[in-house]
């Protein structure tokens, strides 16, 4: 009898938790194939933690191994990076975001959000005055003094640091738990991982294509294997010619590109209708990519931010590499 | 009678500058991205008020304002001391490589991902280490002259400059903004104003009785020696205290330029070259100028935040040029 008189909100939460349990098993299975044990374990632990609470309290472990606990679902969230904004919207918590940093331009609703500075220097007063009940920080990009000060002022801070596809999915799930939007977060995380698996099955085992991805022109920059661009190239069956360099976005010389002789050159950075970066390679007619006209553009926002939009960038990238295979 | 007259002549400008400093600090506490009315401000200062206003004023504005005051004061006094020591109008607190040493140590610890308070300690150590290095090298085997000290300092600074450029060139892209802001000088790093304030107060008290000897030294070491000043110990103690002042300033807010070079000159143009007056006046003026600059830096295009170093130069250059032009 007591069960039947549960308040509707709690009942909804129970069913969410059951759902998220199923999803975390799925994630775990995915992780096992991928070798991403630690992360899957973290997600699993956080789900267990959250389901252990009878009240509305919810806890997750963030990417610097801090446990972030909220007494009830977050209602006033501030995102300290454009990527965090996208992930919150992906987790179905977009309507709970009350402020964001400059360049938070996706999805469309994010453009209208009040700004509290840029990701590398934010207006502390504006943040404190907004009285958020959750702040999503970016471990690599945010100034640590300011993030630490926010934590000392008593705001719950979630530190994000997404390095691979699995991290993105687990972040969406964890943000969903904190915001109380587990259902849509889990759906989106699953959609994202299924999408990744789809491209992996379709392209990863195809004939490798030697690929150069140009992040920036002056200085000339590329991405190594640990960057999302590197992951995407591998996924599409590409062979990133600078995969083994140490730094995430190494600065390289034109000669290094000529020496590696890529079959495809992909450029981000410039606008869609400005092919100047790619045209600059045309004089080097001994590069295979130039001979076969395998010079392509992929909008950088779809490959450089940790968000489900990566699927769009990956789709385009895989198509380009497939085009190059067709020109052999 | 003459002594009383001289004291009065010195105390009038100092009283005026103290009032101006208090006004600047009061202004900086009143102004911010969040508007706080005078009555609310008064409520907070008398120990009550809303919790939000308390946080804004007692945790964010007041500590930052005091840190700015201390840093500006330290730099201006250090600059005045260096100009007396080196008898060179172009001398500033950084001329002997202190900011370079601090920057190299701070950026290195940032690159190694150490927590902010270690970055501060590293900066302090780097500054003092560089001071000892320059002093030891210029002492060398030959005689110790100010020209030698200056030349050694300038060359060591260039060396640090090269190391800094190297670190910026190979540093990871996400960390570059943080490193650049540190180099530009920024009060957002300042967490606790007390160490800098205490050092400023202590050195001011210690230097006060040395004013007469400093006046004589400014005319040249030979004259000073002839007039019974122990030149060598005096020079050593100036060098040591200027280094300590600069090191604490750089530790609080990164390398903020301009104040140390120009504030002492400005004061000499207006007040004459009496170190007994110039040193305390420099502490007050440097402090007030940096408080004003930082207030503008955090409000002028809020919520975007500027580094204070930009504003110090933009405010100071026209003021100084005007004074210089009038003084002909």
From TrEMBL, chain B:
Location(s) in or outside the cell: Cell membrane
Listed GO MF terms: transmembrane transporter activity
Membrane topology (UniProt): Multi-pass membrane protein
Superkingdom as given in the UniProt entry: Bacteria
Keyword Cell membrane: yes
Gene3D superfamilies from the UniProt entry: ABC transporter involved in vitamin B12 uptake, BtuC
UniProtKB keywords: Cell membrane, Membrane, Transmembrane, Transmembrane helix, Transport
GO cellular component: plasma membrane
Record keyword tRNA processing present: no
A Pfam family that the UniProt record links to this protein: FecCD
SUPFAM superfamilies listed in its UniProt record: ABC transporter involved in vitamin B12 uptake, BtuC
Transmembrane intervals: 12-45, 65-86, 93-111, 117-137, 149-172, 192-210, 245-265, 277-300, 306-325
Family per record: Belongs to the binding-protein-dependent transport system permease family. FecCD subfamily.
Stored PANTHER family: ABC TRANSPORTER PERMEASE PROTEIN MJ0876-RELATED, FERRIC ENTEROBACTIN TRANSPORT SYSTEM PERMEASE PROTEIN
Name of the protein this chain belongs to: Iron complex transport system permease protein
Record organism: Litorivivens lipolytica
